[in-house]
Amino acid sequence: MFYRPEDGHGLPHNPFNAIITPRPIGWISTRAADGTNNLAPYSFFNGAAYFPPQVMFSTTGSKPDQDNTKDTVANIEATGVFCVNIVEYAMRDAMNATSQTLPREVDEFAHAGLTPVECETIACARIAGAPAALECKLTQIVTLPGESNRVVFGEVTGIHMRDECLKDGIFDVTTYQPLARLGYRDYSVVRDLFTLARPDD
């Protein structure tokens, strides 16, 4: 099958997200200018650079109570900081609860039954007990073609790792089993690993 996105795919559901899989989930916490905490998952998320460490995530929608964007981006624009919390399998239901579209004055930590704790290098909350969290300072927001499509880039200024996830000096993802986003309403979980050495190692 071949199709041009501008012409449509003719399928019951858009296959685009199902093709680009698996995707890590950036569970982005921010704080509004009035002090309200916000938390939302984004599966268009990844690392962007090693030195200095940088991450990116993109948002592709808007809310009626924000100006052509979502609470997450509006908060980052106002404060210049955000935190990426890593999603483990055990937190899948809480993560899903924070994907609900809620009024901007609602604290998603409370909505999902999660405990916020203060970050070390930025004025923002992170999720207590998350396997890892990346404290980030905004570097730039890029507007993409299309309605409400924006990419947020940030430099990582602090990294939290849950102690039991470190095994012999290695951050072992099998200790918490990261959640990955697939297409449609599907997810996957990482439980099995294998190693490949690069030819030039």
UniProtKB/TrEMBL annotation:
It holds the Pfam family Flavin_Reduct. SMART domains: Flavin_Reduct. Signal peptide: none annotated. InterPro entries: Flavin_Rdtase-like_dom (IPR002563), Split_barrel_FMN-bd (IPR012349). GO terms for molecular function: FMN binding; oxidoreductase activity, acting on the CH-NH group of donors, NAD or NADP as acceptor. Residues 18-173 form the Flavin reductase like domain. This is Flavin reductase like domain-containing protein. It comes from Ruegeria pomeroyi (strain ATCC 700808 / DSM 15171 / DSS-3) (Silicibacter pomeroyi). The lineage of its organism: Bacteria, Pseudomonadati, Pseudomonadota, Alphaproteobacteria, Rhodobacterales.
